[in-house]
Every structure is written in structure tokens, then in C-alpha cells.
Specification:
The protein has 402 residues and is mostly helical. The chain has 14 helices and three strands. Among the domains are: 106 residues, DNA polymerase, domain 1; 158 residues, hpI Integrase, Chain A, CATH 1.10.443.10. The radius of gyration is 28 Å and the shape is globular.
Length: 402
Amino acid sequence: MSPDDALASFLEALSARDASPHTIRAYRTALTDYLGWLASADARALTRPGHPDDAAWERPGRAVLRGYLGHLADRLARRSVGSRLGAVRSFYRHGRRAGWLEGDPWAAIATPRQGSRLPRVLDVGQVEQLLDATDVHPSRSPVARPGRSVSGGPVQPAPGARERQQAWLAVRDRAIVETAYAAGLRISELAGLRHGDLDLRHAELRVLGKGRKERAALLGRPAVEALDAYLREVRPILQERSQSADPGFVFLNARGGPMGVRGVRLRIDRLVRLAGLPDGVSPHTLRHSFASHLLDGGADLRVVQELLGHSSLATTQLYTHVSPGRLRTAYASAHPRAGRDAAAASPAPAGGRGQAPPGHAPAGDRGAASPGHAPSGGRAAAPPLRTSADPPGRLSRQAPGQ
């Protein structure tokens, strides 16, 4: 079998397993690069003398495989190298199951370890900044939404066509950000939402995630109100601009077509710049923030796993890092010499073990706490979070799930 036929067979099997178009495209890219490199002079230069088949795709030699690892490491980040190797290993496993390969040459090659990196998250105030940016004109002047001004009062419709379009898109953009943050959606899930997936009456939506796995996501009142305003006031106007039938997707572009992943990403990136948020904030940062804020508010780890659609709890545990604010509060409430007056306290008299320095509870009295601190072992206060009982743009001290 030729390498092209083997690749076609593998991609056909992926399609039969209902893999997403993004997965199939990524695997095709990875394997085309791999098979092309095996046919190159660089691979042939690594074969043993008298063993030209060391560069054959069916059973490449160990030196050739290590050479390909070096080829990837020179061009790609460590995480991307792992993704490429995952595609190659899947290809060989499929060939062995299909019977056109005798074994997996990569079985004895160790995959480079992935670096552990905490996800970037926004605090609640930064999420509010991002939402506020939906009402800002590119020239940084406020833009009123249809039927209401920036201050919330009634206004007349904007006189110009350009101003009206900006007002409509501001309503849509707010619905995008509210939905992404309220439900913790991936950008592909957000762009792929359809009318039939929404149940605003019960504040729920159906999400088709990775591997075509379906899950239910929840919405708070701000997200429900933002979606309702967009679907009633703006989406019909955008759909009228399209020359084709309604595509059924929730979020449409200015021409009435589906926004797609690229369109959603560009709009959120624009809002990030308008909000003045740090470099590196991406649409996926809203998903990270969703998970971290739930855990900070006391949500159970398995509940967060279910809401995120993770197959493995280990993936969700990435978000169990302790935020600096919680870390400082817990330390101040638990450590006996963490109070502000601890450094100024005089040492206890010789033999006076029962006497505590000023501002601290006596030794052994674990139920007492210093002024302004929680009792020893007490839980740190969670940051304010958006809940279903909050009006748009407001925050509640109640944590999700309580």
C-alpha cells in the first residue's frame, strides 16, 4: 500500500468515527508533513548503511524517528509536537488494526514531556471590562443599543446606517461574551450554536463538544437577557441581509451569514483590545475564567468537569490552582504570626507559654481568631461572581452552585 492510500484509509476511518472536521484537518496536516519528511533527503541521511528501508513509512528505523522528533522540535512548540506525534501514533495503530502494518514503530519512542502551565484567567472585574467594551465604538465613543442608551434610558434609533449597524453588532457581541463566560464554551462550540440548541426558558443550551459528545450547559440571567435581546431585536435584521436561506446558526455576521470560528475570534480579540486587557487574553481565556471562578466559589470539581465537558477529571484539575487572593487570605487566617501586628509583638516572657502576643489567640485556643481574620482553617472568601439572579452588568456575592 502506498503512503497516500494509507493516509486516505486512515482519514476515512476518522470520518466513520464521526470525528470533527477540525480533527480530520489537523491529522491530515500532521501526517502529510510526517510522510513527506520520510521521503526527504534528511530522512535518508539517517538510515544505516545497507538499510535504505529504514526510511520506509511502514517500518522506519529508530534513528529516523528520532530525527523526525528533532525536525519537529526545531519548528514547533512542545505542545504542538505532542499533538503531531499523537496523530502519527493513531495512524500506525489504525494500520496495525487494519492489517496492513505489522507493528507500531513509535511504540518504543518516548513522547517529550509536556510542560505544566497554569491557565491564564481573568478576574471578575476584567470580565466586566470586557462586557462594557461591547458598548464602545472603535473610536472609543459610546454606542447606544437599539431602544436604550448607554446609560440605560430610552433613545431614538441612530440616524445613520453605519451607526445602526454598530449598535446591532454591539448587542450581538454582548450576547457572545455573556454566553461564552456563562456556559464555559470553547470557541468552536460558541460558533456552532444553533437555534435548536437554546432553551432560554430554562436557561440551558445543548452543546456538541469534542468527539461529538453532547452536554448540557447552563446560563445565568445576564446571558439569557443578552441572548433574548439579540435574537428578538438584531438577528432578524442581520438575517434579512443574507441572500440565502437562514443557516440556523445563532450568531450571524454583518452580512447575515454564519460568523464561524474565525469571525467570533476576531470580534472577541477586538473587544479585548478595547477593554485594555493584558496581552495573551484569548477567547479560550473566558472558558478558563469560567472554571476557575466556579471553583473559587466552592463548586464541586466533578460538577465543573461536567459543565466543561471534560472526559477526564485530571484535565479539570488543572483549574484547582489557588488564586493569589485566596492564598493570602488563607495564610492570614491560619498562620499564628501572619497578623500585621505580629512583627511588632514582644516575645513571650520566659516560661509563659500560655501567654499569646497582642492581637493573637492564646496558644491552644483554636476556636479564637485575631481581629479581622477568619478562624484558623476557615475558608477564604470567594470573589463576587455573576449568577442567574443578577441583572446585566451587576455582580453578586453568591457563588455559583450555592
